């Protein structure tokens, strides 16, 4: 299984992070959260006062921040220019702005290159929106996680204090539409990916299903 890459894609709230970390732990692999990298880029743009309604302004500056991702599934880390941004990148302001930043082709070129560098020789579970289609099209195991909009919103509002499931569902639907209709590398199911609907499954059941796929395909 040396060099294994497990590509884990799907919309927000489908369970990608918990499942990816669980699979990485079970197999002794590293873990990369590519969404955290797009969030870190967005956090930096907001700090700098870049006009996020202006894709050219985003493109002009996206080469500047130094984004460093730790890949331990027990405690993934994310730093921008040596600042720990694990907390700030989950705040509402970043969540509301990240899709606009992630839609800029120059941002994607830079972050995909960085992701491929980290993935290197493999032994890693990578979660995102375009891992099986763009970042690692040759990954032997590609999973596309889905869940009903209600289940996804429910999970997110359980994680975030102060939001209702309804408000979450609306914000997620907006983000999913932006992510799946953008011109560059939209969220879609990659060729060769296996769809796993997590709506009625427990976390343990989803992890077991992915481990079964890994066994079957390696
Ligand atoms: O996974 P997470 O919800 O943290 O991702 C935040 C945002 O980053 C997504 O809504 C999407 O706009 C962007 N993203 C992306 N490509 C990836 C991972 C995330 O465009 N591979």
Automatic annotation (TrEMBL):
Domain (Cytidylate kinase) ranges: 6-215
Chief location of this protein within or outside the cell: cytoplasm
Binding positions (ATP): 10-18
Any single GO CC term annotated in Swiss-Prot or TrEMBL for this entry: cytosol
Region feature Disordered, mapped onto this chain: 155-184
Protein name: Cytidylate kinase
HAMAP family: Cytidyl_kinase_type1
GO biological process: nucleobase-containing small molecule interconversion; pyrimidine nucleotide metabolic process
Record key words, sorted: ATP-binding, Cytoplasm, Kinase, Nucleotide-binding, Transferase
EC number: 2.7.4.25
Annotated signal sequence range: none
Residue ranges with Basic and acidic residues bias: 172-184
Keyword ATP-binding recorded: yes
Pfam families for the chain: Cytidylate_kin
Compartments where found: Cytoplasm
Catalytic reaction annotation: dCMP + ATP = dCDP + ADP; CMP + ATP = CDP + ADP
GO terms for MF: ATP binding; CMP kinase activity; dCMP kinase activity
Similarity field: Belongs to the cytidylate kinase family. Type 1 subfamily.
């Amino acid at each position: 299984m040396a060099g294994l890459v497990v590509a884990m894609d799907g919309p927000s709230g489908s369970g990608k992070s918990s499942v990816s970390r669980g699979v990485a732990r079970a197999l002794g692999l590293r873990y990369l959260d590519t969404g955290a990298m797009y969030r870190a880029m967005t956090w930096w743009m907001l700090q700098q006062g870049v006009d996020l309604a202006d894709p050219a302004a985003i493109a002009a500056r996206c080469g500047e921040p130094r984004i460093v991702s730790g890949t331990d599934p027990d405690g993934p880390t994310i730093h921008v220019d040596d600042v720990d941004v694990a907390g700030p990148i989950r705040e509402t302001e970043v969540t509301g702005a990240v899709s606009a930043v992630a839609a800029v082709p120059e941002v994607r070129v830079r972050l995909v290159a960085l992701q491929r560098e980290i993935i290197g020789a493999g032994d890693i579970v990578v979660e995102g929106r375009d891992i099986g289609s763009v970042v690692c099209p040759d990954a032997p195991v590609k999973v596309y996680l889905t869940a009903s909009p209600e289940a996804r919103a429910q999970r997110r509002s359980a994680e975030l204090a102060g939001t209702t499931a309804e408000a979450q569902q609306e914000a997620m639907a907006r983000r999913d539409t932006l992510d799946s209709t953008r011109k560059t590398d939209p969220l879609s199911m990659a060729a060769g990916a296996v769809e796993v609907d997590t709506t009625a499954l427990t976390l343990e059941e989803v992890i077991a299903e992915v481990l079964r796929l890994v066994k079957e395909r390696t």
